[in-house]
Target: Endonuclease V
Amino acid sequence: MSASPPEDLVKHWESEQERLRQQVVEDDTEDWQRRPDFLGLQRVGGVDLSFIKGDEVNACAQLVVLSYPDLELLYEDSQMVALTAPYIAGFLAFRETPFLLEALQRLKLTRPELMPQVVFVDGNGLFHYREFGLACHLGVLSGIPSVGVAKNLLQVQGVYKNEEHQSQIAVLQTGGESFPLISASGKVLGKALRSCDKSSKPVYVSVGHRISLDTAVRLTHSCCRYRVPEPIRQADVRSREYLRVHFPATQT
Model:
Protein backbone atom coordinates (compact mmCIF):
# COMPACT_ATOMS: atom_id res chain seq x y z
CA MET A 1 0.00 0.00 0.00
CA SER A 2 1.28 3.47 -0.85
CA ALA A 3 -0.24 5.30 2.11
CA SER A 4 1.44 5.11 5.49
CA PRO A 5 -0.36 2.73 7.85
CA PRO A 6 -2.38 4.35 10.65
CA GLU A 7 -0.17 4.70 13.71
CA ASP A 8 -2.92 3.66 16.10
CA LEU A 9 -3.54 0.47 14.12
CA VAL A 10 0.15 -0.45 14.20
CA LYS A 11 0.30 0.14 17.96
CA HIS A 12 -2.82 -1.96 18.49
CA TRP A 13 -1.40 -4.81 16.43
CA GLU A 14 1.94 -4.62 18.23
CA SER A 15 0.13 -4.83 21.56
CA GLU A 16 -1.93 -7.79 20.36
CA GLN A 17 1.17 -9.60 19.13
CA GLU A 18 2.88 -9.05 22.47
CA ARG A 19 -0.16 -10.36 24.34
CA LEU A 20 -0.43 -13.49 22.22
CA ARG A 21 3.35 -13.99 22.20
CA GLN A 22 3.15 -14.79 25.92
CA GLN A 23 1.02 -17.84 25.08
CA VAL A 24 3.47 -19.46 22.66
CA VAL A 25 4.80 -22.82 23.83
CA GLU A 26 8.24 -23.58 22.39
CA ASP A 27 8.41 -27.17 23.66
CA ASP A 28 7.09 -30.53 22.46
CA THR A 29 3.66 -31.12 23.96
CA GLU A 30 2.53 -34.26 22.10
CA ASP A 31 3.65 -37.87 22.56
CA TRP A 32 4.25 -38.35 18.82
CA GLN A 33 6.75 -35.48 18.82
CA ARG A 34 9.03 -37.44 21.17
CA ARG A 35 8.70 -40.87 19.55
CA PRO A 36 10.99 -42.43 16.92
CA ASP A 37 9.72 -41.73 13.41
CA PHE A 38 6.92 -39.63 14.96
CA LEU A 39 4.94 -42.75 15.83
CA GLY A 40 1.32 -41.73 16.44
CA LEU A 41 1.33 -38.87 13.96
CA GLN A 42 -1.29 -39.61 11.31
CA ARG A 43 -2.47 -36.26 9.91
CA VAL A 44 -0.46 -33.19 8.89
CA GLY A 45 -2.07 -29.97 7.69
CA GLY A 46 -0.90 -27.23 5.37
CA VAL A 47 -2.30 -23.74 4.75
CA ASP A 48 -1.69 -21.04 2.17
CA LEU A 49 -3.34 -18.11 0.43
CA SER A 50 -3.08 -17.49 -3.31
CA PHE A 51 -4.14 -14.18 -4.78
CA ILE A 52 -5.86 -13.31 -8.03
CA LYS A 53 -3.17 -11.76 -10.22
CA GLY A 54 -3.03 -7.99 -9.73
CA ASP A 55 -5.52 -8.13 -6.87
CA GLU A 56 -4.34 -7.65 -3.28
CA VAL A 57 -7.79 -8.26 -1.77
CA ASN A 58 -9.35 -11.37 -3.30
CA ALA A 59 -7.62 -14.66 -2.57
CA CYS A 60 -8.12 -18.38 -2.27
CA ALA A 61 -7.62 -19.57 1.31
CA GLN A 62 -6.51 -23.17 1.22
CA LEU A 63 -6.32 -25.95 3.79
CA VAL A 64 -5.11 -29.46 3.06
CA VAL A 65 -4.72 -32.44 5.37
CA LEU A 66 -2.36 -35.23 4.35
CA SER A 67 -1.78 -38.65 5.82
CA TYR A 68 1.50 -39.26 7.60
CA PRO A 69 3.97 -40.68 6.74
CA ASP A 70 2.54 -41.42 3.27
CA LEU A 71 1.64 -37.77 2.57
CA GLU A 72 -1.51 -38.67 0.64
CA LEU A 73 -4.40 -36.19 0.44
CA LEU A 74 -7.17 -36.78 3.00
CA TYR A 75 -9.00 -33.46 2.83
CA GLU A 76 -8.92 -30.12 1.03
CA ASP A 77 -10.85 -26.88 1.43
CA SER A 78 -10.60 -24.03 -1.09
CA GLN A 79 -12.49 -20.86 -0.23
CA MET A 80 -12.49 -17.47 -1.92
CA VAL A 81 -12.07 -14.69 0.64
CA ALA A 82 -11.82 -10.90 0.61
CA LEU A 83 -9.05 -9.60 2.86
CA THR A 84 -10.05 -6.51 4.79
CA ALA A 85 -6.94 -5.69 6.83
CA PRO A 86 -4.18 -3.67 5.15
CA TYR A 87 -0.81 -5.21 4.36
CA ILE A 88 1.82 -3.94 6.79
CA ALA A 89 5.23 -5.62 6.98
CA GLY A 90 5.48 -7.74 10.11
CA PHE A 91 1.70 -7.97 10.54
CA LEU A 92 0.74 -10.40 7.78
CA ALA A 93 -1.11 -12.59 10.28
CA PHE A 94 -3.79 -9.96 10.83
CA ARG A 95 -4.67 -10.20 7.12
CA GLU A 96 -4.55 -13.96 6.72
CA THR A 97 -5.13 -15.75 10.04
CA PRO A 98 -8.92 -15.18 10.29
CA PHE A 99 -9.53 -17.05 7.03
CA LEU A 100 -7.15 -19.89 7.85
CA LEU A 101 -8.84 -20.29 11.23
CA GLU A 102 -12.22 -20.43 9.52
CA ALA A 103 -10.98 -23.27 7.32
CA LEU A 104 -9.84 -25.23 10.38
CA GLN A 105 -13.17 -24.54 12.09
CA ARG A 106 -15.11 -25.78 9.06
CA LEU A 107 -13.11 -28.99 9.15
CA LYS A 108 -13.72 -29.42 12.88
CA LEU A 109 -17.46 -29.07 12.34
CA THR A 110 -17.77 -31.31 9.29
CA ARG A 111 -14.97 -33.91 9.59
CA PRO A 112 -13.51 -33.70 13.11
CA GLU A 113 -11.78 -37.05 12.68
CA LEU A 114 -9.56 -35.45 10.00
CA MET A 115 -8.32 -32.53 12.12
CA PRO A 116 -4.55 -32.19 11.64
CA GLN A 117 -2.25 -32.95 14.55
CA VAL A 118 0.18 -30.30 13.31
CA VAL A 119 -0.14 -27.49 10.76
CA PHE A 120 2.59 -26.28 8.40
CA VAL A 121 2.35 -22.59 7.59
CA ASP A 122 3.85 -20.89 4.54
CA GLY A 123 5.63 -18.19 6.55
CA ASN A 124 7.54 -17.59 9.75
CA GLY A 125 6.91 -18.36 13.40
CA LEU A 126 9.34 -17.06 16.02
CA PHE A 127 11.71 -15.97 13.25
CA HIS A 128 10.02 -12.57 13.05
CA TYR A 129 10.50 -8.90 13.94
CA ARG A 130 8.75 -9.36 17.28
CA GLU A 131 9.06 -13.16 17.47
CA PHE A 132 5.42 -13.69 16.56
CA GLY A 133 4.86 -14.48 12.91
CA LEU A 134 1.94 -16.06 11.08
CA ALA A 135 2.70 -19.60 12.27
CA CYS A 136 2.67 -18.47 15.92
CA HIS A 137 -0.52 -16.47 15.43
CA LEU A 138 -2.39 -19.38 13.84
CA GLY A 139 -0.97 -21.88 16.33
CA VAL A 140 -1.95 -19.91 19.42
CA LEU A 141 -5.45 -19.09 18.19
CA SER A 142 -6.16 -22.63 16.94
CA GLY A 143 -4.37 -24.46 19.75
CA ILE A 144 -2.80 -26.81 17.18
CA PRO A 145 0.96 -27.43 17.05
CA SER A 146 2.31 -25.36 14.18
CA VAL A 147 5.51 -24.95 12.20
CA GLY A 148 6.56 -21.96 10.12
CA VAL A 149 8.42 -22.74 6.89
CA ALA A 150 9.51 -19.79 4.74
CA LYS A 151 11.03 -20.04 1.28
CA ASN A 152 12.90 -16.75 1.60
CA LEU A 153 15.09 -15.42 4.39
CA LEU A 154 13.53 -12.69 6.49
CA GLN A 155 16.40 -10.34 7.27
CA VAL A 156 15.58 -9.53 10.86
CA GLN A 157 17.17 -9.21 14.30
CA GLY A 158 20.72 -9.25 12.94
CA VAL A 159 20.23 -12.18 10.55
CA TYR A 160 21.27 -11.14 7.04
CA LYS A 161 21.56 -12.74 3.63
CA ASN A 162 25.25 -11.94 3.47
CA GLU A 163 28.43 -13.75 2.47
CA GLU A 164 28.59 -15.62 5.79
CA HIS A 165 25.03 -16.84 5.36
CA GLN A 166 25.77 -18.02 1.81
CA SER A 167 28.86 -19.88 3.00
CA GLN A 168 26.80 -21.65 5.67
CA ILE A 169 24.31 -22.72 3.00
CA ALA A 170 27.15 -24.12 0.89
CA VAL A 171 28.17 -26.43 3.74
CA LEU A 172 24.76 -28.15 3.75
CA GLN A 173 25.47 -31.22 1.63
CA THR A 174 22.50 -33.54 2.16
CA GLY A 175 18.82 -33.32 3.03
CA GLY A 176 18.23 -32.91 6.75
CA GLU A 177 21.32 -30.82 7.44
CA SER A 178 20.71 -27.39 8.97
CA PHE A 179 22.28 -24.45 10.76
CA PRO A 180 20.81 -22.05 13.34
CA LEU A 181 19.53 -18.54 12.61
CA ILE A 182 20.96 -16.56 15.51
CA SER A 183 19.79 -13.06 16.43
CA ALA A 184 22.12 -10.23 17.40
CA SER A 185 21.28 -10.99 21.03
CA GLY A 186 22.40 -14.61 20.62
CA LYS A 187 18.97 -16.24 20.56
CA VAL A 188 18.28 -19.02 18.08
CA LEU A 189 15.15 -17.94 16.20
CA GLY A 190 14.99 -20.77 13.68
CA LYS A 191 17.08 -22.93 11.39
CA ALA A 192 18.00 -22.96 7.71
CA LEU A 193 17.27 -26.50 6.49
CA ARG A 194 18.38 -28.28 3.36
CA SER A 195 15.07 -30.03 3.05
CA CYS A 196 15.97 -32.62 0.42
CA ASP A 197 18.96 -33.85 -1.56
CA LYS A 198 17.48 -32.50 -4.79
CA SER A 199 17.52 -28.84 -3.74
CA SER A 200 20.56 -26.93 -2.49
CA LYS A 201 18.40 -23.90 -1.67
CA PRO A 202 17.28 -24.11 1.98
CA VAL A 203 13.97 -23.37 3.63
CA TYR A 204 13.75 -21.45 6.90
CA VAL A 205 12.03 -23.33 9.74
CA SER A 206 10.83 -21.76 12.98
CA VAL A 207 8.58 -22.71 15.87
CA GLY A 208 4.95 -21.71 15.60
CA HIS A 209 3.42 -23.22 18.73
CA ARG A 210 3.55 -26.39 20.85
CA ILE A 211 6.65 -27.88 19.22
CA SER A 212 10.40 -27.54 19.76
CA LEU A 213 12.69 -26.22 17.05
CA ASP A 214 14.62 -29.47 16.67
CA THR A 215 11.39 -31.43 16.32
CA ALA A 216 10.03 -28.88 13.84
CA VAL A 217 13.15 -29.23 11.70
CA ARG A 218 13.09 -33.05 11.76
CA LEU A 219 9.37 -33.10 10.96
CA THR A 220 9.78 -30.63 8.10
CA HIS A 221 12.52 -32.77 6.58
CA SER A 222 10.37 -35.89 6.90
CA CYS A 223 7.55 -34.18 4.99
CA CYS A 224 9.69 -33.04 2.05
CA ARG A 225 9.53 -34.84 -1.27
CA TYR A 226 10.80 -31.64 -2.86
CA ARG A 227 12.21 -28.42 -1.43
CA VAL A 228 8.96 -27.27 0.20
CA PRO A 229 7.25 -29.60 2.69
CA GLU A 230 4.38 -31.45 1.05
CA PRO A 231 1.52 -29.97 3.15
CA ILE A 232 2.52 -26.43 2.12
CA ARG A 233 3.32 -27.44 -1.46
CA GLN A 234 -0.07 -29.11 -1.87
CA ALA A 235 -1.87 -26.11 -0.36
CA ASP A 236 -0.06 -23.82 -2.80
CA VAL A 237 -0.65 -26.03 -5.85
CA ARG A 238 -4.34 -26.55 -5.08
CA SER A 239 -5.11 -22.91 -4.31
CA ARG A 240 -3.45 -21.82 -7.56
CA GLU A 241 -5.35 -24.49 -9.47
CA TYR A 242 -8.61 -23.25 -7.92
CA LEU A 243 -7.88 -19.74 -9.20
CA ARG A 244 -6.95 -21.06 -12.66
CA VAL A 245 -10.25 -22.93 -12.93
CA HIS A 246 -12.54 -20.26 -11.49
CA PHE A 247 -10.76 -17.09 -12.64
CA PRO A 248 -8.96 -18.13 -15.85
CA ALA A 249 -8.88 -14.63 -17.34
CA THR A 250 -6.86 -13.30 -14.41
CA GLN A 251 -4.13 -15.95 -14.46
CA THR A 252 -1.00 -16.08 -16.59
Summary: The beta strands are 43-51, 58-67, 73-82, 118-122, 146-150, 178-182, 188-193, 203-209. The longest strand covers residues 58-67. The chain has a mean pLDDT of 95. The CA atoms of residues 59 and 81 lie 5 Å apart.
